[in-house]
Design brief:
The protein is α/β, with parallel strands linked by helices and 227 residues long. Helix content is 31%, strand content 22%.
Length: 227
């Protein structure tokens, strides 16, 4: 808990907390979020020891912006963020850190920027996707630089349970299609086997994997690269 990256995340959280955030951040999310993506900040920090110069970072579904801000401070890079709503990210934080932000649906909309990114963050999002995730993962892969890294986290269905309110199986989830009502909920919770198969067919290889403790149940943490 006293590691350098953990203290750096704490500083980012303090900055968000004093930047007029959405009230839910202070009520609950600040204390919970790190347990979802516990290993990701350490893995991101390790890139400073590798031959990757991080110039641009994209956070998809970045919510309150903790990991995006962490990357900004660590690499002094440009930050780009998308989310389905603009109600989470503080305008104060966005302006102070020159965060490029756009309300966008990663499944249906083209990305608002034409850049390639050394880091793409996709934490606690894939379970919210309304459509088959393969096209979205391929879209994300296309925006990574050749040495780029994707950081992805999601609840582990083995502990959180299957989510069958909307679909009976992963194969029954339809391809992206304009016109369907958007569900704001966990649409599908994945097994490790499903994720590994999905990463393979989407053109990724797994570089690092671990379980985060979660609250109350564990989450998958993955670092992925182009295959």
């Amino acid at each position: 808990m006293n590691s350098k990256w953990f203290r750096a995340i704490g500083e980012c959280q303090k900055e968000i907390a004093t930047s007029n955030p959405n009230p839910y951040y202070l009520q609950a999310y600040r204390d919970a979020e790190i347990w979802y993506w516990y290993h990701v900040p350490k893995w991101i920090a390790q890139l400073t020891n590798e031959s990757i110069q991080v110039n641009k970072v994209l956070d998809i579904g970045g919510a309150y912006g903790t990991l995006a801000l962490y990357c900004k401070h660590l690499f002094d890079c440009e930050i780009f963020m998308t989310d389905l709503t603009g109600s989470y990210l503080s305008d104060t934080l966005k302006c102070k850190n020159e965060i490029n932000f756009s309300v966008s649906n990663i499944e249906l909309d083209p990305l608002p920027w034409q850049h390639q990114f050394e880091i793409i963050i996709f934490t606690e999002v894939i379970e919210h996707l309304n459509f088959n995730p393969k096209p979205t993962l391929i879209k994300i892969r296309e925006r990574l630089t050749d040495k780029g890294e994707l950081f992805l986290t999601t609840p582990d269905a083995a502990e959180w349970g299957r989510k069958t309110d909307y679909f009976e199986s992963l194969d029954s989830i339809p391809s992206p299609s304009v016109g369907r009502p958007i569900i704001d909920n966990h649409v599908w919770q994945y097994s490790k086997k499903e994720l590994i198969e999905l990463f393979t067919v989407s053109g990724f290889r797994i570089e690092k994997f671990n379980y985060a403790p979660g609250t109350p149940n564990r989450h998958f943490n993955f670092q992925l690269a182009k295959r």
